C-alpha cells in the first residue's frame, strides 16, 4: 500500500513538473533515479554495471532517448538479468515506446502499474520466468503495437481487455498456462496480423474472435490440447490473408474442410496431431504457395494423392502416422524443393521409386515403419547431396546395402534396421564422415565388420545386432589404418592391435549382439572412453578379457556379454568401471572365485548376472555392499558355502522401488544425444505418454543350481522388496525360515531340490502375491498350511517328493502316514525367464511384465521414434510388451 501511495505521489510530482517550463532536468533525474532503483532491486544486474550516475542515462547500455532527452527505448534482451518489475517506477518513463526484456531471468508478476507507460508501442517480456496472471491494465496501453509475453509461466484467463488494443499487430502469448477466456467479451482484433496462443491450456471450439480478426496472416493455436470441434469452413472468407496456419496438437475432428483450398496465400499449413479423418483431400495439390504441409498423427486413412507432386514450392511434407494405405506416388519425385519428407508409420507398400532421386533438395527422408519392399535405390545417395538423415527402418526392403551411401558425406543418421537386407556391410560406409548414428540391426547381413568403419570418427551409436555377421572383430587390420593415424588421441598407441573399433573414440552405444562374431576382444577395447552401453551378447566370442593397466577411464553403464564363450577369471579390466549399472556375464565359461572387490567397485550396480558359468568358491559377503542391487542371478555355477547373512543389507531389495521414465532412460544409457532429443521433445512426450506413469524395477535373487549348503539365513526375509527368490537345486538344509511370510511382495519362490526339513511355515500362506511356488524334492514334513494364497496353488507337484508332507492339494490326508511317491517332472526347473524380466510397467492401469531386453529395445525405439514421431513409440512399446507377455506365458 505504501508503495502504491509513494508511486502515486511521484506521479503527481512528475505531472506537476511536466506542466512547467524547464522541466526536462527534473524529468531526466526522475527517470535516472527510477532506473537506478530498479537496477538496485535486481538480484543479478551484472550486465548493467555501467548504469551509474557518472554517465548520462541516455548513454547507458540498452537505453535510447528521444530528442528531449527522455528515455524512449529500453532494449535489454538476453543479458542474464534476474529480478522482477515491481521496483520499476513506470510512471517515471512516460516517453518509453519500447521495453524489451526478452530472454532474461525475470520472475514475479507484471505490475498493473505497467499501464503508466503511456507511450508504449512495443512490449516484449518473452522467454522469462514471469508468473501470475496477465494484468488487464495492459489493455489500457492504447499505443501498443507489439505484445510478446510468450515462454513464461502466466496463468489464469487471457484478459478480454487485451482484445481492445486499437493498434495491436503482434499478439504472442504462446507457451504459458493460460486458460479459457470468456471469448464472448472479446472484441474482434482487426489490426492483428500475428496471433499466437500456442501451448496454453485453452479448449473449446475454434475461438470466434479470431475469425473476426480479418487481417491475421500468422495464426498459431497449436499444442493447446484441446481445441476441438471442426476446423471452420469459413476460415478463407474470414481470414483471407492467412499465410501461416498452425493448429497442430489439438483435438480438431472431422474432415479437412475443402474450403481451405481458397486460402490462396497459405504457405504453411500444420494441422498434424488432431483427430482429422476422411483422407488427404486432393485440393491441397492446387495450393501452389505451400512450403510446409503437416498432416500427420491424424486418422486420415486413404492414399497419398499424386497431385501433391504439383506443389512446386513445397519444402516440407509430413504425413506421419496417418493410417495411409498407398504406394509412394511417382509424382512426388517432381517436388524439387522438398527437403523434408516424413511418411513414417503408415501402411505404405510397394517400392521406393528410383524416380525419387530427382528430389535433389532432400535433406531429411523418413519412411520407416511401413510395408515397403524391393531394393533401396542406390541413385538416391549420389543424387541427394544434402542428405543428413535417412530412415527406412521397419519395412521389408531386400537386396544389398548400397555402397553409394559412401557418397552421402553429410549423412549423420542412417537407420535401416528391421528390414530384410542381405549381403555384407560395404566398406564404403566408412566414407560417411559425418555419420553419428548407424543402425543396421535385425536384417539378414552376413560377412564381417569392415575395418573401414573405423574411419567414422563421429560415430556415437552403432547397432549391428540381430544379423548373421561373422568373423573376428579383431580382423582386417589393414595397413591403411596404421597410416591414417589422424583424428585420434594419443591413446591410439595402446591400440597396437589396430582393431577398427578402437578408433571409434566417440562411440557411446554399441550393440553387436545376436550375430556370429568370433575371436577375442581387442586389448584396446576398454579404451573407448565414451562408451556407455555395450552389448556383445549371443555371439561366439571367446578367450579371456585381458587385464589392463590401471590408468584408464571407463564410463560404461551397461555391459552385456551373455551367451558367448568368454573364459578366464572375473575380468579385472572392469575394476575401473565404477559407473557400471548392469553387468551380464551369463552363459559363458568364466571360472574362479567371485572377487570380493565387486562389492565396493560398483556402487551403482542394479543388475548382476553371472549365471551359467563355472564360478566356484563362496559367495563373498561383500556383495551386500551393492546398495542399488535389484537383480542378482548367480544360478548354475559351482558356488559352495552358505548364503551370506549379510545379504539382509542389500538396501534396494528391502522395498519395492518405482522409477520415473526419465530415470529409466537415464539409467539405461545416459547417452547425451538421446538425452538431448529427450529434452527437446519433453512437452510432446508428456502429452503422448500419459499412461506410462512409472516403472517398477523387478527385484529378485536366483542362486539355483549351485552347491550351496547350510541353512537359509533368516536374514533373507528382511528383503521385503523381493519379487522372486530361487534357491533350488542346492544342498540347503534346516527348515524354511519361519517368517518367510514377511516377503510380502514375493511372486515366485522356488526352494525345490534341497535338503530342507521340518514343516512348511504357516506364514507362507499369507503372501498374497505368490503365484509360483515349488518346494518339491526336499524332506519337508507335516501338514501343508491351509488358506489364503496357498489355496490357489492347486498343483500337487509343487510338493512332490517330500515323503512326509500331507494335506491339500496332495491326495494324502494328514491322518494317513503313507508316503506320496508319484513321480513328476519339475516343470519350472529349467525356466530362466525370470532373469530376463527386469521391469514391470504400468500401462493404462494394467500391470504388465516386460523384459530388460525390451527396455533396451525401447531405448532404440525411443531414439527412432523421437526422430520420426513420438506416437509410434507407444505402439512399439506395446507390441513389445505383448511379445514378452506371450513369452512369459509360455515359459
Ligand atoms: C535462467 O537461469 C537459469 C539458471 O539459473 C538458466 O538455466 C536459464 O537458461 C535462464 N533462463 C533464461 C531465459 O535465460
Ligand atoms: C475446458 O477445460 C476446462 C478445465 O480446464 C473444463 O472445465 C471444460 O469443460 C473444458 N471445456 C471443453 C469444451 O472441453
Ligand atoms: C485490416 O486492417 C485495415 C487497416 O488497419 C482495416 O481497415 C481493415 O478493416 C482490416 N481488415 C479486416 C478484414 O478486418
Ligand atoms: C506453428 O507453425 C508456425 C509456422 O506456421 C511455426 O513457426 C511455429 O513454430 C509453429 N508452432 C509451434 C508451437 O511449433
Ligand atoms: C476422434 O473422433 C472420433 C469421431 O470422429 C471420436 O469418436 C473420438 O473420441 C475422437 N478421439 C479423440 C481423442 O478426440
Ligand atoms: C505387408 O505386405 C505383405 C505383402 O506384400 C502382406 O502380406 C502383409 O500382410 C503386409 N503387412 C502389413 C503389416 O500390412
Ligand atoms: C536370410 O537369408 C537366408 C539365406 O541367405 C534365408 O534362408 C533366410 O530366410 C533369410 N532370412 C530372412 C529373415 O529374410
Ligand atoms: C568347471 O571347472 C571344473 C574344475 O575347475 C572343470 O572340471 C569343469 O570341466 C569346468 N566346467 C566347465 C563347463 O567348464
Ligand atoms: C549390515 O551392515 C551393517 C553396517 O554396515 C553392519 O554393522 C552389519 O553387521 C551388517 N549386517 C550383516 C548381517 O552383515
From TrEMBL:
GO terms for molecular function: protein serine/threonine kinase activity. The keyword Zinc does not apply. Residues 29-66 form the Leucine-rich repeat-containing N-terminal plant-type domain. The chain crosses the membrane at residues 833-854. Its main location: membrane. Residues 237-393 form the Disease resistance R13L4/SHOC-2-like LRR domain. The lineage of its organism: Eukaryota, Viridiplantae, Streptophyta, Embryophyta, Tracheophyta. This is non-specific serine/threonine protein kinase. InterPro entries: Leu-rich_rpt, Leu-rich_rpt_4, Leu-rich_rpt_typical-subtyp, LRR_dom_sf, LRR_N_plant-typ, LRR_R13L4/SHOC2-like. It is an enzyme of class 2 (transferase). It catalyses: L-threonyl-[protein] + ATP = O-phospho-L-threonyl-[protein] + ADP + H(+); L-seryl-[protein] + ATP = O-phospho-L-seryl-[protein] + ADP + H(+). Keywords: Cell membrane, Glycoprotein, Kinase, Leucine-rich repeat, Membrane, Receptor, Repeat, Serine/threonine-protein kinase, Signal, Transferase, Transmembrane, Transmembrane helix. Pfam families: LRR_1 (PF00560), LRR_14 (PF23598), LRR_4 (PF12799), LRR_8 (PF13855), LRRNT_2 (PF08263). SUPFAM superfamilies: L domain-like, RNI-like.
Amino acid at each position: 500500500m505504501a508503495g502504491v501511495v509513494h508511486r502515486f505521489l511521484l506521479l503527481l510530482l512528475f505531472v506537476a513538473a511536466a506542466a512547467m517550463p524547464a522541466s526536462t532536468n527534473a524529468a531526466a533525474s526522475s527517470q535516472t533515479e527510477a532506473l537506478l532503483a530498479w537496477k538496485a532491486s535486481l538480484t543479478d544486474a551484472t550486465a548493467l554495471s555501467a548504469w551509474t550516475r557518472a554517465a548520462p542515462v541516455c548513454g547507458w547500455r540498452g537505453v535510447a532517448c528521444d530528442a528531449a532527452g527522455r528515455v524512449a527505448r529500453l532494449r535489454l534482451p538476453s543479458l542474464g538479468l534476474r529480478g522482477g518489475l515491481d521496483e520499476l517506477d513506470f510512471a517515471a518513463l512516460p516517453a518509453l515506446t519500447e521495453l524489451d526484456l526478452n530472454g532474461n531471468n525475470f520472475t514475479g508478476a507484471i505490475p498493473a502499474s505497467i499501464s503508466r507507460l503511456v507511450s508504449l508501442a512495443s512490449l516484449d517480456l518473452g522467454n522469462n520466468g514471469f508468473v501470475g496472471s496477465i494484468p488487464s491494465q495492459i489493455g489500457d496501453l492504447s499505443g501498443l503495437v507489439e505484445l510478446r509475453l510468450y515462454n513464461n509461466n502466466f496463468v489464469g484467463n487471457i484478459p478480454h481487455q487485451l482484445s481492445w488494443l486499437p493498434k495491436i499487430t503482434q499478439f504472442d502469448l504462446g507457451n504459458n498456462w493460460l486458460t479459457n477466456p470468456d471469448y464472448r467479451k472479446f472484441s474482434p482484433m482487426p489490426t492483428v496480423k500475428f496471433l499466437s496462443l500456442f501451448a496454453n491450456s485453452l479448449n473449446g471450439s475454434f475461438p470466434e474472435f479470431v475469425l473476426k480478426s480479418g487481417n491475421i496472416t500468422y495464426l498459431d493455436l497449436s499444442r493447446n490440447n484441446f481445441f476441438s470441434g471442426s476446423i471452420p469452413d469459413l476460415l478463407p472468407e474470414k481470414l483471407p490473408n492467412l499465410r501461416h496456419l498452425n493448429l497442430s496438437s489439438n483435438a480438431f475432428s472431422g474432415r479437412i474442410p475443402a474450403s481451405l483450398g481458397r486460402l490462396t496465400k497459405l504457405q504453411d499449413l500444420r494441422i498434424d496431431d488432431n483427430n482429422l479423418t476422411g483422407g488427404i483431400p486432393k485440393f491441397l495439390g492446387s495450393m501452389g504457395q505451400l512450403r510446409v504441409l503437416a498432416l500427420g498423427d491424424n486418422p486420415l486413412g486413404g492414399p497419398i494423392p499424386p497431385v501433391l507432386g504439383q506443389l512446386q514450392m513445397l519444402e516440407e511434407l509430413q504425413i506421419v502416422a496417418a493410417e495411409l494405405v498407398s504406394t509412394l506416388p511417382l509424382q512426388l519425385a517432381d517436388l524439387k524443393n522438398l527437403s523434408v519428407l516424413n511418411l513414417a508409420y503408415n501402411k505404405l507398400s510397394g517400392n521406393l521409386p528410383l524416380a525419387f532421386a530427382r528430389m535433389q533438395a532432400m535433406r531429411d527422408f523418413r519412411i520407416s515403419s511401413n510395408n515397403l519392399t524391393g531394393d533401396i535405390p542406390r541413385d538416391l545417395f549420389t543424387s541427394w547431396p544434402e542428405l543428413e538423415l535417412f530412415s527406412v527402418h521397419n519395412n521389408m526392403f531386400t537386396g544389398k546395402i548400397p555402397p553409394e551411401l559412401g557418397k552421402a558425406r553429410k549423412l549423420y543418421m542412417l537407420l535401416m534396421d528391421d528390414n530384410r537386407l542381405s549381403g555384407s556391410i560395404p566398406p564404403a560406409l566408412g566414407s560417411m564422415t559425418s555419420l553419428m548414428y548407424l543402425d543396421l540391426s535385425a536384417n539378414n547381413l552376413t560377412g564381417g565388420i569392415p575395418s573401414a568403419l573405423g574411419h567414422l570418427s563421429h560415430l556415437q551409436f552403432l547397432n549391428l545386432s540381430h544379423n548373421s555377421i561373422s568373423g573376428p572383430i579383431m580382423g582386417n587390420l589393414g595397413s591403411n589404418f596404421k597410416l591414417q593415424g589422424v583424428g585420434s588421441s594419443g591413446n591410439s598407441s595402446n591400440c597396437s592391435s589396430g582393431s577398427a573399433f578402437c578408433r571409434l573414440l566417440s562411440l557411446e552405444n554399441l550393440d553387436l549382439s545376436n550375430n556370429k562374431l568370433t575371436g577375442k576382444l581387442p586389448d584396446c577395447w576398454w579404451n573407448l572412453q565414451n562408451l556407455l552401453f555395450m552389448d556383445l551378447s549371443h555371439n561366439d566370442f571367446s578367450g579371456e578379457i585381458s587385464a589392463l593397466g590401471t590408468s584408464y577411464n571407463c564410463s560404461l553403464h551397461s555391459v552385456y556379454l551373455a551367451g558367448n564363450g568368454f573364459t578366464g577369471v572375473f575380468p579385472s579390466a572392469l575394476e575401473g568401471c565404477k559407473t557400471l549399472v548392469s553387468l551380464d556375464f551369463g552363459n559363458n565359461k568364466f571360472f574362479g572365485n567371485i572377487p570380493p572387490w565387486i562389492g565396493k567397485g560398483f556402487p551403482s550396480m542394479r543388475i548382476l548376472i553371472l549365471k551359467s558359468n563355472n564360478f566356484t568358491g563362496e559367495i563373498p559377503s561383500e556383495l551386500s555392499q551393492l546398495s542399488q542391487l535389484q537383480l542378482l542371478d548367480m544360478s548354475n555355477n559351482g558356488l559352495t558355502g552358505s548364503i551370506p547373512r549379510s545379504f539382509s543389507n542389500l538396501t534396494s531389495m528391502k522395498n519395492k522401488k518405482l522409477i520415473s521414465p526419465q530415470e529409466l532412460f537415464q539409467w539405461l544409457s545416459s547417452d547425451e544425444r538421446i538425452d538431448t532429443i529427450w529434452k527437446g521433445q519433453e512437452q510432446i512426450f508428456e502429452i503422448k505418454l500419459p499412461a506410462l506413469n512409472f516403472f517398477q524395477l523387478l527385484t529378485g535373487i536366483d542362486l539355483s543350481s549351485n552347491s550351496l549348503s547350510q541353512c537359509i539365513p533368516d536374514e533373507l526375509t528382511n528383503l521385503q522388496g523381493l519379487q522372486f527368490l530361487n534357491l533350488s537345486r542346492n544342498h540347503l538344509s534346516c527348515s524354511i525360515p519361519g517368517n518367510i511370510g514377511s516377503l510380502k511382495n514375493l511372486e515366485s519362490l522356488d526352494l525345490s531340490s534341497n535338503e530342507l526339513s521340518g514343516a512348511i511355515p504357516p506364514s507362507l500362506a499369507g503372501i498374497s502375491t505368490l503365484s509360483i511356488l515349488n518346494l518339491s524334492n526336499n524332506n519337508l514334513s507335516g501338514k501343508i498350511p491351509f488358506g489364503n494364497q496357498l489355496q490357489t496353488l492347486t498343483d500337487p507337484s509343487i510338493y512332490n517328493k517330500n515323503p512326509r508332507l500331507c494335506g491339500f492339494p496332495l491326495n494324502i490326508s494328514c491322518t494317513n502316514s503313507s508316503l506320496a511317491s508319484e513321480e513328476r517332472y519339475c516343470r519350472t526347473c529349467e525356466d530362466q525367464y525370470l532373469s530376463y524380466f527386469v521391469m514391470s510397467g504400468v500401462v493404462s492401469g494394467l500391470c504388465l511384465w516386460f523384459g530388460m531386453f525390451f527396455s533396451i529395445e525401447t531405448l532404440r525405439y525411443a531414439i527412432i521414434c523421437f526422430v520420426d514421431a513420438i506416437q509410434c513409440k507407444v505402439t512399439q512399446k506395446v507390441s513389445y510388451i505383448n511379445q514378452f507377455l506371450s513369452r512369459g506365458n509360455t515359459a
